[in-house]
Amino acid sequence: MTGTRVGDYHADRSISRGAASPRAWRPPVNAVDVQGLSHRYGERVALRAVSLAAPGGCTYGLLGPNGGGKSTLFRILSTLLRPTDGTAVVMGLDVRTEAARIRPLIGVVLQGSYLDGKLTVRENLMYRGRLHGLYGRRLRNGIAGRLAQAGLADRTDDRVETLSGGLRRRCELAGCMLHDPSVLLLDEPTAGLDPVARAEFWTALEAAKRERDLTILLTSHIMDDAERCDRLALLDAGEVVAEATPGELKSSLGHEVITVQSSMGADLVDRVRERVGLNAAWTGEHVRIRVDDGKAWLGKLIDAFPGEFTSIALSRPSIEDVFLAEATGGTEPEGLTP
């Protein structure tokens, strides 16, 4: 970053953080504050009066199916797109009128890699750092520190095209941290990664957050990512349909969940409704049924489908169940991954 920090960022708030003055600037309680935000692409509405707030220092997740509006919201927050209506404020700055002041304060990784496969890891980060005005010893030290933090110190001179998908994601994370941002915007950061690579990415991300009270906003359709967030907003068709902590969202259902696998596949949904009168949802791999008395319904289902289940299990609701209940009317949304 080029000579400015959050504490002395505004020209009209020239007294830096910590000065003994009533005019001294203070970081906002909410690092990101969105109110009544809407956006249209021609006749298509991508966001409908979205309101949400991410407190400073939290990990805030936006969960939803493909086409739900997550990426459009992130493009607005990263100052790449002007909203049609409403307001979006990042670190106290309005995206409409103060975009240039926001950019040094955010680290962004959107869908699609910015890395050049023919360059080494170090060369990619040098290029990224120079875009932020970093040079010389500060840039070299920053690259070494961020790569160590991301677990890539031994891959510095490797061409990016030789790295696995998980290592590339961690390289992108190291790059977006070079200028010491206050807010990270990560759009589908673990998409396409296997469980091990996903866990390694989260280890690197949490290490970066611990180092400097970062606020992290990420979009995902992966349930494991959602469980790691401090707060979640569920978006469907451009609207926020639920917003709370993961625990609060799961508790709000007040049901138990029966998970069934069968050779009938998705046809089991209709048969459950016909034989026992319960609504069910097909997830692409199994059928999930929300019930009030799980132990009693286990026996009833086994009696109603003798020998027809491969497996049956009872559990508490998951974030996936919340989304099925809140956003999709009981049908599995496209792109939602357990």
What can you see in these coordinates?
There is one protein chain. The chain is α/β, with parallel strands linked by helices. It has two domains: 227 residues, Rossmann fold; 78 residues, Alpha-Beta Plaits (2-Layer Sandwich). The chain is built from eleven helices and 14 strands. Helix 4 packs across helix 5 and helix 8 crosses helix 11. The chain is globular. The N terminus and C terminus are likely disordered.
How is this fold's topology laid out?
Elements: E1 30-41, E2 44-55, E3 59-63, H1 70-77, E4 85-90, E5 93-94, H2 99-102, E6 106-109, H3 121-131, H4 136-149, H5 165-176, E7 183-187, H6 195-211, E8 215-220, H7 223-227, E9 231-236, E10 239-244, H8 246-253, E11 256-262, H9 267-276, E12 281-282, E13 287-291, H10 294-304, E14 309-315, H11 319-326
Parallel strand pairs: 3-8, 3-9, 6-7, 7-8
Antiparallel strand pairs: 1-2, 1-4, 4-5, 9-10, 11-13, 11-14, 12-13
Helix pairs in contact: 3-5, 4-5, 5-6, 8-11
